[in-house]
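Milestone M4 deliverable, item 7.
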Amino acid sequence: MNVYSVKLLQKVQAHLRKGGVIAYPTESCYGLGCDPFNYAAINKLIKIKGRSKTKGLIVIASSAKQLHKLIQPIAGNQQHQLAKYWPGFYSLILRVTAKVPRNLIGSHSKVAVRVSLHLQVKQLCDSLNTPLVSTSANKSGHHSIKSYRECQRQFGGKVLVLPGEIGKAKTPSTIIDWESQRVLRQ
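Output delivered:
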């Protein structure tokens, strides 16, 4: 089932191509997103959110294949272990490729990535044929935004807000460092 019209998806694609920031429903709240390979767009998102540049950002995708340009290859014997986490509500911290903009990972050498089950996230990433930056839509230190209307009120013309329904998750995704298997957020 497609939630977004072709016309809206074309508008989103053009907006992202110009370095724009979007707000869209995710598993637990609205997320702020942009092209994860666009340095200027990432800076714009960080500024809108009021987030420290030293913190990394999460990237969300509809499939592991969409993440290949971002993350280093995972050893063949570990590939099957990904099925325990993806698609799902787990963001895994993995080593990045040389193509990743430094501002995406902040002061880190890795990036948190997630393959989502959320219908609208999957449609966005599939239709745009790209993963998206995904950080909670809120000013840093404030509560996550749960509705289209609140996103419009708080961000106005700074972001393109997409309609839709957030998922049923009550908390943000669990974050796990892949190499150490340490849970960093639950």
